[in-house]
Amino acid sequence: MTELIQRIEHRLKGPLPGREAQLRMAHVTRRHYVGAPTTARQAAVLLALFLKEGSPHIVFIERNANDRDQHGGQISFPGGKAEPSDTTMLETALREAEEEVGIGREQVKVLGGLTEIYIPVSNFQVHPFVGYLSDPPTYLLQVEEVNDVLEAPLSHFQQQEKDKVTDIRINSQITLKNVPYYDLHGRVLWGATAMMLNELLELLTDD
Questions:
Q1: pTM assigned to the model
Q2: Which of 1, 15, 162, 190 can pair with 5 through a Cys bridge, CB separation 3.0 to 4.6 Å?
């Protein structure tokens, strides 16, 4: 592993930047949701890192747009809801990454977990895990769920300004104003994914 990956693993074992780091990339209304209710459904995602051209890259997916998925069409990390057969939330993250994009769990060295995050619109409590792939992934998409895979170096986000905002149209009745976002190859990366990503980035800068 590179020095940066080793540093991430080390930092994940200590105090995390936590919810405040997440909220720095959240719409102002997210501060109203302190924690998940007891009725929240459980889910997990994998922040998969790998080396490409000597630089740590991270894997994202673009979800298919459909009426059944409240997050359809959005950029996210591979992941999904816990199944009864999953013994831990980490197992959920690894299983979902394998199902959605073909990253085998045997390929993943788990570096640690980030702070859980509650998503009010879908009532999910999401458990983020960071993993390192010793080789660049070969993708096999679950086409019913995933439209595309996107890769970007961590440095791409570290170099971006944190004060970029845009308006996000949720549906015909609701448009969120001034939503913080990251630019990902011309696409808007926002919401819970941007919040989890920002915690990872602040983990590397909070010395």
A1: 0.93
A2: 1
